[in-house]
Structures are given as C-alpha cells and as structure tokens.
UniProtKB/TrEMBL annotation:
It comes from Anolis carolinensis. Keywords: Endonuclease, Hydrolase, Nuclease, Nucleotidyltransferase, RNA-directed DNA polymerase, Transferase. This is Gypsy retrotransposon integrase-like protein 1. PANTHER family: INTEGRASE CATALYTIC DOMAIN-CONTAINING PROTEIN (PTHR37984:SF15), PROTEIN CBG26694 (PTHR37984). GO terms for molecular function: endonuclease activity; hydrolase activity; nucleic acid binding; RNA-directed DNA polymerase activity.
Amino acid sequence: MEVHTPKAKCLTIQASSEQLPESSSSIIELVSGIEGKQEILREQLADETLQPLFLQAQSATGTEESKTPKFVLKEGVLYRKSTSHKTLNEPETRTQIVVPVNYRKQLLDVAHDNPQGGHLGVRKTTQRISKNFFWPGMYQHIKEFCRSCDTCQRFSTGRDKTKAPLVPMPVIGEPFFRVGIDLVGPLYKPSRRGYKYILTVIDYATRYPDAVALTNIETSTIANALLSMWGRTGFPRELVSDLGTQFTSRLMKKLLELCGIKHLTSTPYHPQTNGLVENLNKTLVKMIKAYSQQRPHDWDTKLQQLLFAYRSVPQDSTGYSPFELLFGRKARGPLDLIREHWEASPTPDPVPVDDYIKDLQSTLKMARDIAQEHLMTAQEQQKIRYDATSRPQDFNVGDEVLFLTPNKNNKLQMDWTGPWRIVRKQNHVNCDILDERLGIEKRVHVNMIKPYVNRLANVYCIVSEEDTGPFSFWEGDREIHRNLDKVSINSDLSPSQQREVKGISAKYKVMFSDLPGRVQGVQHKICTGDAAPIASPPYRVTGKISECIEQEVREMLDLDIIVPSNSPWASPIVLVKKPDKTVRFCIDYPNKITQNDMYPMPRLDDLLERIGKAKFISSIDLTKGFWQVPMAPEDQSKTAFRTQGEDRPILFLSKKWHSSEHSMSTIEKECYSIIWPIKKLKPYLWGRKFTLQTDHAPLRWLDNVKGTNNKLLRWSLSLQDFTFDIKHIKGKCNVVADALSRAP
C-alpha cells in the first residue's frame, strides 16, 4: 500500500499578547504588499463570504438613490454604497471598499493598535474603519477585537468597576462570640509616652468597642494587649482580622490555639469582610484628630473617654447603644449628671438582688432580640442598595483573569496585571489565582478580578505534497493494545473539561497505543568510517534483571524491532528505570569511532526566550519513539548486542596436582575437587541452588564423615554459604569430565 500524505506545517501568527507585531508592519503589508486593484479583486473573488454580495451587486438595477445601503461593482471591484445624514440638510454619500477576509486583521491592527489608532473604544474604531471599508459582520468583529485587546484590558474604565452581590455577615446573638481586631497607625503625632499605634477590638453582637494604645506592633505586644482585654470580657470563640503578619505569625496562631479561638481572615484589599472594625477605626481616628487640636500629645490618656462616647450612643443597625446591650442599662454620662443636678432627683429605693438579676436578664434578652431584628432588617436594606449596582461574577476553575493593582507607583502604570489562572474556588466570592509564569499564588475577592479575553490566533496551513513511499503497519491486532484507562487527565480541570478531554481521547483512540509505529521516508545512519568492528563484553546482571532483559527481547522480536544476528559488533545492555517504575531497554555504545553530525544544537537560553512568552506548551509522548525510526540496512550490524539465550559452555577449569596434594587420601582429593571449582565459580553459583554431578560415590556421605577429619570439617564449613545437591552418576555417564581429564 502506498500513501501520499500532504506534509502540513502550521504557523501560528500572534499566538499571545506579548508577541503582537508592530502595527507599522501591518501598514507596510497593506500598502507595499498589495499590488493594487487586481489583487483586491482576486482576493474578493476568492473569498466565499463575499459571493452573496457579488450576486446582489450584479442583480442591482437603476441608478436611483436609495436610503438603504447597496453593493456596486466598479471595474470589477466590489463596493458598498450608503447615505448618511450628519445634519438634516447635508446628506453624505459614502463609498466603502468591501474588504476580503485576508486583510481584515491587518486593518483592525492599524485602526486600533497603531499609535494613530490610540486604542480607542468600539464606537470610535468603528467610525474610523467604516469611513473607507466594510465587510459582513464588521461591527461584531471590531467589538470582539477591541474587547480582546491586551493593552485595553489592563487599563481601568468606568465599566470595569463591577462588583459581586453582597454576602451579609451572619448575625451573632451571643456577646463576644465573635470579635474583630485591627491596628491603627502609626499616628502622625505620637503621645508623650511614645504611643503611636492603637489596637482596636469590637464585638459583633453588641458592637461594643475597646482599644489599647501601643508603642509598637510586634506580635508579643499585641498578644499581651489581647490577653488584657480578654481578662475583662472572656475569651471569644471566633476572631476576625486581616492578613497582617502580626495576626498570622506562629506566636499568634499558637496563642489562639491555646485559647480555643477560631481565626478568620479577610481577603487582601477587601476590608468589607471586617467592616465593623474598619468603621470603628474611622470614627476613632476622627475623634482623636479633633481632640488633638487642643492637646496633640495627650490623646492616649483620653482614649477610654473617647471610647465611652462611642459606647453610649445608639447604633443605627441595632437601635441600642453597645453599653446598653452589654450591661443591660443605660450609661450614666456627663449629661445624665447635669440633669440629675438640675432636677435634684431623689435617690431611688434599693431593689433586692434577686429581683434586680431577673429584671436585668429579661431586659437584656428583650434588647438583644430587638437588636437582632434591627440588624437583619438593616442588612436586608443594605443588600438591596448594594445589589442595585452589582452583577453576579461567575468564574470557574481554569478561567484566565486579570488582577487589579491596588497601589500604583505612577500614572502610567497599568491598573490590571496578569493574566492569572483560577486554580480553586473557596466560595462564591473568594478564589485562589495563580500566575503561571512567576509561580505566584494568592487568594483574592472576585471584586478584584475580571475576565481576560484572549484574542483568537490566526493559523495558516502550508501544504506541500510529498511521496513518502510504501507505509507498512505492524501486522497484529492493535485494538487490544489501545487502553484509554492509562490516559491521565489533570484533576485541576473542571468536570465538563474532563469529560471533553475524555471525548477527544475516545474519538482519536487510534493515537493511544502501547505499540510503536514506524517512520517512513527517513533512516538512521551510523557513520564509523573504516574502523574495525568493536565487541564489548556484556555487563553482569542478576537473575531479576536477566528476566527483564529476556522479556524485553521477546517483545522486540514480536514487534519486528530486532532480528537475530551473528554480527562481529557487540555492545552491552543497560536497563534504566523510568519515573513510572517501568524499565527502558538501552544499549551502551562506549566507543569513540562514531562520527557525529556537526549540526548546531539550540542554546538553552534561546529556547527559553522563544517559549517563555507562550501561553501553551505541549509535548508529544511517543510510544518508544526512538524505535520508530528504522535503521539503515548497511548499519544494522553495528547495533548488535549480546543476550542470554541458549545454554553454552562458558568456562573449562583444570588443575594440576601439586606434590602435597598427591599425598591426600582419595576422599580428600574428591572433596578438594569440589572446593576448588566452587570457589572459582563463586560469582555464578552464590545465591542460587545448583547440582553437582560426580561418579565418586563416597562424596554422598560427606556429611557423615566430616566430624572425623579436621580438613574435611573445614571444607564442609566453607561450603555452607552455597546451596547445592550432590548427585552420583555412573562413570560411563560422566563422559565430559573423563574426556577432559584424559585430553593431552
């Protein structure tokens, strides 16, 4: 069978945003690369999308003006003619060239990416192009082109400020069940005692605040301040903070673990998670700023008095003051003292302790129930107002997104960085993103990211006909060797993506096989010049490795990869373990006579520079890829290797008796004839069981007589490292040993 296969090569143009060509090159291609009307006409006629427009132009009759656009032919070139009204009295007739599909991309580059294009929006770019050109679906193409512009996506516009719907925090009913903490400072004006930071704490149930002035924000200082506060209120069950190093250090984690406190953290640049303490900080700083106008260095001494002002004022969300929700009574402040003095109110009668406690409990329960109802109502109203300008942000694992830069160093810095890839979703509003180029992973709120739109790549296919000759396949049942279960799919893909990959694998299952193919049209040649054949001795192998070699050789023989050979060349076998614990069969050619081809190898830094900006990197995992390249017939003998197959004699041992050995008894001579060859053949015999054949019957009773002869005892002990049987055969059957002993 002969197969004539077209040899195709795909060239990807503008595969990534970092590889965008300069727009000036597009101008040069459109101006100097086009020969004029003849080429435009040729491209228009070859464009299938323009054929219906040619039919409209050919069927058009009359020259009357029409309010609807129409297509006309001028010297064979297709135009679009339309009338627009800039004003009521000045209609404008516009004649546009209908652009073939091959030139649309370059026109979009010039109109948008070129410096004269200025990266303007869809409307301005459409106005610029439609002044001279038109093609079917032009507005949608311009919209997609501008939307996928990498540069435009990295700069903020008003439309970028989309936010996800509000997720209210759960309403807490138990005081100091959950508290929020944060740090304020360093303050512009430190106190006389060196305080320039404030640790703020607020209770989520009662909105009761607390604060401590600090000289530094080391973890040990903050830990001592928290223990001091918790000595008055008790240990909370949950603590909410940002990701400051003081709150996430090992010391703080250990403290919270010992106190049985669950630590909750907000995502970076999303303070709304801990909005209560942020509002407390804002109000507290405003009060300190107002007090500091009179005494700028004594604010730390008045900190608790400023907190009293915050605690004694009713909250809009609860309807009660934090002091009243916590203590069950109203705070007696300066205004209450003035009123009591003016009214000269009599001292109230004393109340029994039991009655006071019961009344206090009922008052606290009623106040907290009402406060929870007010909180829920306030949250519902807040969510309605917030969601009026929000939009659901639906991201999936694997999506590419841009991350908003919180702080810019200059006005020319881009607002968005990326693209990042979503690797996992924590909940509806938090997800983990990864910069695959830098290997940086971070957790962000969905309000800090937006989808990244990739620009579609233009792929051109260059096809050249080439006769590759006969193409022979392996003449076996390949179907039994195709196992899609061995195809591993990345677990980070979404379920729908995994199903899509499985579908593609099943569709092209012919590509997944344990059997190697065979390349046609090329052969591997080994140039050794006039060098004589080289035969290297094989490496020593153990029994298990020998079994692996035999199995590999059988498989290669079945696949017609190797054939038996009597070549004078020989090289040893080497088995190399693969990462998947399987074995790779290799031949070691340790000679220096092979003449290498002096082709330049690509430099590593050049390869990294080429692929460093790529968005996708793929590799082909061939089944025994090197074995798919056939060897040139004249060089096949040079690839010979030695294997264990048929049993052949590999060694003949003989020894002449010395004068001292002649005086030994017959039994000693027979025993020595065992000791000497076993020691010589120890590398082959040690660790395996073997059989010793002899025609001397007394050796069978060696174990019985060794105790009466010291020499036999020593020899018997030296043989304990070996496992063997002594088999007696008749003298007439031991012809090999007799023939060798009688040979001249």
